[in-house]
């Protein structure tokens, strides 16, 4: 899927190639260099488009996460307790208090 190269890109590439032209370099070599520069410009623009797309996707995903965080969650009656160690700690505390009561009273 190659996109046609615009005249502006061709003109810019030719200017760059002429700016870096060495003495004794033929026009054919300069044209080949200009074509390479055109391809480089095209590749650079493709890379920038893909980077922009990925940044946009990440931005949308972060906005989606933030919007879901702001909405209150429904509280279901079957949710487990937030602290599963609480019943065990109460059991241990009650047994310790029972043992202390027996020994000291």
From TrEMBL:
Q: Where is the composition biased (Basic residues)?
A: 47-63
Q: Which residues cross the membrane?
A: 85-104
Pfam families per UniProt: DUF2956
Q: Which residue stretches belong to region Disordered?
A: 1-31, 43-79
Task: List keywords of the entry alphabetically.
Answer: Membrane, Transmembrane, Transmembrane helix
Reading the lineage from the top rank, the first entry is Bacteria
Where is coiled-coil annotated? Answer: none
State what protein this is by name. DUF2956 domain-containing protein
Which species?
Shewanella surugensis
């Amino acid at each position: 899927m190659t996109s046609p190269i615009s005249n502006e890109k061709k003109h810019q590439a030719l200017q760059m190639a002429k700016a870096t032209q060495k003495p004794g370099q033929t026009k054919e070599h300069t044209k080949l260099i200009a074509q390479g520069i055109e391809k480089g410009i095209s590749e650079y623009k493709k890379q920038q488009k893909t980077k922009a797309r990925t940044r946009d996707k990440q931005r949308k995903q972060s906005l989606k996460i933030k919007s879901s965080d702001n909405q209150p969650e429904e509280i279901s009656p079957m949710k487990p307790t937030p602290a599963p160690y609480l019943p065990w700690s109460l059991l241990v505390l009650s047994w310790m208090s029972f043992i202390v009561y027996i020994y000291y009273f």
